[in-house]
Design a protein that fits this description.
Radius of gyration: 19 Å
Shape: elongated
Largest sheet: 20 strands, parallel
Distance between the termini: 46 Å
Structural class: mainly beta
Number of strands: 31
Number of helices: 0
């Protein structure tokens, strides 16, 4: 990727602009450590991080006002959010550690892929999509770990969205929350939800149990609410644990 390449230590905000082709790459030997401002800031741009990006004073590790893509193979930390996306569509591909004082990733809308070995954590939300438009559904794919604090939710969608989980999502106040818009929850065998998974019953919400080389177990346990349908993919082998009362909302099983 063309743009600024950081191999040493920078203590001022890196601004994405035409001068650096709206891009920055932080090498494994590089550090952006800012105590008064964002680590990286731009309206649009691309960030690739192999090293460290930190912002320790009420700011964000990476802050994009509009659109962009961030690939993280190192560590990104912000006192507010590890990554913040203001009013556009941001794509995050995380293989490393993404932490925030309040949010691991706080996006208007976009797609987040947390790969195996990747970690995303925020005391309030590990992941938060705050668009209120049900036509701008965001996507979260998790093969790693996403967590929140004792009063937080692992992943929250203010409007509709899709979660594909093969890893662990947890939070003291809930694992996943869809507060509005159509919700789709796709569960792979071995997925863990530590905390309630909730959706707004005013919308069309479904749980899809994916096929796998191994059988899956999903403990409904009263922790899943607001979903209208439960669908078994072709060839999928699953056990649903729970009581009849936990399915009393009348979900359609396909």
């Amino acid at each position: 990727m063309s743009g600024t390449i950081v191999t040493g230590t920078i203590t001022n905000t890196v601004t994405l602009s035409p001068a650096n082709n709206y891009g920055v790459t932080v090498a494994s030997t590089g550090t952006i450590a800012v105590t008064n401002g964002n680590g990286v800031y731009g309206y649009n741009g691309n960030v690739v991080n192999y090293g460290f990006i930190t912002a320790t004073s009420i700011n964000n590790g990476v802050s994009l006002a509009q659109n962009g893509k961030i690939v993280n193979l190192g560590t990104i930390y912000g006192a507010n959010a590890g990554i913040y996306g203001g009013n556009g569509n941001v794509t995050i591909d995380n293989y490393g550690t993404l932490n925030g004082g309040y949010f691991g990733a706080n996006l208007f809308e976009g797609t987040i892929t947390n790969n195996a070995g990747g970690q995303i954590y925020g005391s309030k939300n590990g992941v938060y999509f705050f668009s209120n438009s049900v036509t701008h559904a965001s996507i979260l794919v998790n093969d790693g770990y996403i967590g929140a604090g004792t009063a937080g939710v692992g992943a929250t969608f203010f409007a509709g969205g899709t979660v594909i989980n093969a890893g662990t999502i947890e939070g003291g106040a809930g694992a996943v929350s869809f507060t509005g818009g159509d919700a789709q929850l796709i569960v792979d065998a071995g997925a863990v939800f530590a905390g309630a998974v909730t959706a707004s019953s005013s919308y069309s919400n479904g749980i899809e149990l994916a096929s796998s080389t191994s059988a899956g177990v999903l403990d409904m346990g009263g922790s899943f609410s607001g979903f209208n349908t439960i669908t078994f993919d072709s060839g999928a082998v699953w056990t649903l644990d729970g009581t009849a009362s936990e399915l009393a909302a009348g979900q359609v099983i396909n």
